[in-house]
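Entry 14. Ran structure prediction on the chain below.
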Amino acid sequence: MSSSSTTDALHAQVDRMRLEIQSLSSEQGKEQISIGNYLLARLTQLGVTHMFGVPGDFNLAFLDLVEDHPSIEWVGNCNELNSAYAADGYARVKNQGLGVVLTTFGVGELSATNGIAGAFSEMVPVLSIAGVPSTVQQKKHYLLHHTLGDGRYDAYAKAAEQFTTHQAYIKNAATAAVVIDEAIVQCLTKAIYLTLPTDLVYAEVSSERLQTPLRRNVPLNDPQSEEFVLDQIETRVKDAGGDVVVLVDACVIRYNIKAEVMDFLKRTGFPVYAAPMGKTAVDENWERYGGIYVGSITDPVIKENIEKAKLILSIGSLQSDFNSGNFSYNIPIRRHIELHSDHTQVQYAMYPGIGFKQLLPKLTERLEKFHSTGSQIPVAPYIAQLPSDSTQVITQRWFWPRLGSYFKSGDLIVTETGTANFGILDVPLPPKTMLVSQILWGSIGWSVGACLGAAIAGRELDYGRTILFVGDGSMQLTVQELSPMIRLGLKPIIFLLNNSGYVIERTIHGKHRKYNDIADWKWTELLDVLGDRKTETKSYKVSTRDELDALFKDEVFLSNKTITLVEVTMDRLDAPRLLEAQVEVAMKTKCAEDIVRITKEAIEKDREVQDKVGKLDPKDCTFESVFLPLAQADTEIDRVTEPLSFYLNVSPTKEIRDASNEADSLLRDFSVESSMRLDVFDAKTAAEKNIKESGQWEKLSDEDRRLIDKMVLDGTRAGLALPEEKREELKKLKKELSQTCLEFSKNFNEEKSVITFTEEELKGVPKDVISGYGKRTEGDKTVYDVTYKTPDIFPIFKFAENPTTRQLAQEGYEARLEINVPLLDKVLDLRRRIAALLGYKTWADYITEVKMIKTGDGIKKFLDDLESKLRPVGEKEKAILLEIKKKEHEELGLPFDGEFYLWDYRYYDRKYIEKTLDLDDMLVKEYFPVSVVVPTILQIYQDLLGVQFYPIEGTVWHPEVQQFAVWEKDAKDQSGFIGYCYLDLFPRENKYSHAAVWGLLSGFTNPDGSRSYPLAAMVANLAKPTGEKPALMTHDDVVTFFHEMGHVFHGLLSKTKYARFHGTSVARDFVEAPSQMLESWCWEPKVLEKMSSHYKTKEALSPELIDKIIKSRYVNVGLFYLRQLFFAKFDYKVHTDQEKEDYTNLWCNLREQVSLVKSKRFSPGQGTFGHITGGYDAGYYGYTYSLVFAADMYRTVFKADPLDPARGKLYRDKILRWGGSREELDSLKDFLGREPNSNAFLEEVFGTVPPSHL
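Output, structure tokens:
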């Protein structure tokens, strides 16, 4: 299937090849032409008829040629900025034809910079030509006027690099023609920069190249990839049952695909809407056009029609703030397909190099079969609504709808970056109308210069009237450009909206500030002042609705025989509906200042409660006056601030992350302050005494009594029984520890280093992984920049055949956070000092006091016992892997030293699995597309636990985030509501780099007995889609996701009275047990079959492949758990040492002793041990310790039928429901029907326990 766009692209390639051949051949003897005329000839070929600019001594020679040229007319502007604006407006109306602006070196080109940058930002092809000093003057660095006084002639060119897509410098006659041609070809949708030295204007070049036309370079779509994308889109449309709406935007206009889009719409019947920058991209009177979509500020009917569709197809989307309602699009990625100029995104999968110009005609042929369905989707009429009030005041809400009947087909409408841009959106425009506006760049005054260029182009293309809407504040900035309009006999109708100043700024801030006011000019006399005393002009002033109505009936006005200005007076505070809504949304968005301010306010409110409690007379201290208000205050500060401090882990905006980090720092300091308040502790102990002596203790619930015990214990563990001097020292140490831990953790999210490899060095790494790496040229080699994010670096550990590559990657990974080494030293020293002050032998003893294991010695006994059982198994496994390594090294001719290194483990573990089980990780991965696995796992949990997930829409921190409301499956009313869940699944820069769950809101019972509902956010870093494949998950990813969702449901299904005990607020050495138990589902045949669907064939995993996956669970189990023991033993050792030691040596030596892997050099891997400051200090043993409980729970209750809802209900009722509101051992005994034991764990690890047969 061919299309005209494909043919054009092929012609462009052929012509480009011709030019390349000509540039290599000798051109002597050919007809000569001056460089200046060569440039003008090229511009003429591209349809340029006018050039804008201002004379200057470095462009005068070229200006002679321009003025004498038969086809190009010079339009002298009043200043260079306006000339750039005019070239911008000209190019837009010429359907992205080339706009040209000529300025002089330095002062002239810099004056035009704002306008050129705007063209670049808004993707308008503007050629900026700067006349510059001669090549001789530049070479000798003469100190000429317009230089910076330092002899540099490249300063302005370097500045242009920031806002032009290509910079071309004519340096000699030999290369001039090539330089000019290459520059113009680059100017497809953005501004380019070209210098023309004075001594080369008349230098001659061959005219041979002019015989080959220049065509804009539109790359061809790869046919195979394009076909795949077409299949993907067609499948999504089919899955949606044809329930599709189309959203057009700026790039439909910028890339001139309006005809292709309209053909697509007519042949599919799908309803269409436009973003603000896409207004007039389609005929607004067409019956299937529904209006403007601006995110949350959209008309409610339009908003519902778009957001309820099963699939939204965006074409040419550009989601800037004003174009998207301050980024409030409620279009989930899972229901979104985006067609762009250079890529296509189908839900989560992005396909680079597949542009809409060539894709759309083929997509039209594919989807026209859905016309019968698409044409039945209702579209509300898009009409201008006049307000029903009877006032004579001209308001924004009346003015713009009233213009609906004034506009007519063929009008060319230019709107200023002000109220006009917002007001015009509420008005449907007639067919063949063009709207010219600057929404993204938003330079005040742009519209006046742009109107000049637009009017010239409109006259050339036989448009009807040119109508400009501009505010008085904007007009004052660029009013000079009315003069060229009059001089050239143009006849724009200018509506000057007089509201005595800057309305947008007043709406945002400073409504009554003088800085938003301007002088009140005599506007109706303006055209006479700026005219040439010969041209007739017309000016009107209207102040009431009747006056405007009368004007629209005035025959002289309607005749439009000359330039006309209409001054429309409005109230100084009046703003269009959409502008007011936009500002309201922006103000509601939490900005960086809000995060810190709200946190400080929450802290102060909590402090007030503590102050009140601390002042109580001991006899007045009761459960109601002390424990309840303190518990409620703790709950409230967490409710307000937990989401704010969460942003530091997920926000894409640095300012927000920094503010969130500051908020977290404030909260940590306040936590230390609160824990050290002796007055509050005295009130707690007095209340406890009074409660017990009064007999109230027996009347309280178990959870009430647990609250008292824990709150009093908090004070004891905080050292409040210490003398004042030691308390102050302890307080200082705790604050210092808190801040150091925060800095340690922050470095993880801010780490951005990369390691670079060639393709040869990456041999063995899957191609779809390599395609996601940053690719660049280094000298004559292509290299790949690999981040240390898990989806990037771990495939190298597992697949890179070159051991040196693996070694470098592993050593880099270990050393990537060397910055954390001194911080960890400081953390451990502070913990030793704190433990000593509190009277504990070690930090481990302090930490374990409130855990199930109870003592530091208990940790040591557990780890030593497990190591003694694991070591023999690990030694055997290591010997097997070493033999595989030896054989491979012999086959590859690599030296073999008999050692097993850290970077060998994952690689040969995979090789062993492939060899013994014939199990290919990458093949397995193909059966686990994210789009299948995630909803299937959610469904398994829903069925097992009797709940239902409902997708909801709302403001989130990133467009990829999914939101759900969670209800009881049989809910009949509000009592069946459970809570909320967020999923943030894919990696991005500055995001938390592993997988974890945050309980952003805890569930609890309000004082009035009502329920406050929990909210849990799951953050992961699954591999993103590639050009060839959708987002796929390894089996490890599947296990991790299942595990983390276990934490989510622990948070959602807990039902405690107090937030303190909610969800995962249990002993640290038990918190992982429920999720570890749930990992077992990922090794069950029926579940694996249910979760799998090959991304191409849609087939589930075969029984044979499932069997291999299950058998791989305990392959090399000894080495796996020895690695876990290494982490746990390091954690234990550093938290029981009495003195500081060399922790890098400890890290590397202990790893070799316990994990049985060697290193060639000692890297400071302890800097990457995030658990040690993330709440698992002296607690890493808990991962293995809790496995004992996990294995016991699964085998005892779930093994017989893991998908049985009755067993799921038992799990909810006995484990999840209680959270930390009772002893964890009591919950376990209640669930198991007996005391827990380690039999199941030991048999799974050291025996052969077959899976259940479902």
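Confidence is low (pLDDT under 50) at residues 24-29, 1248-1254. Will compare against last week's run tomorrow.
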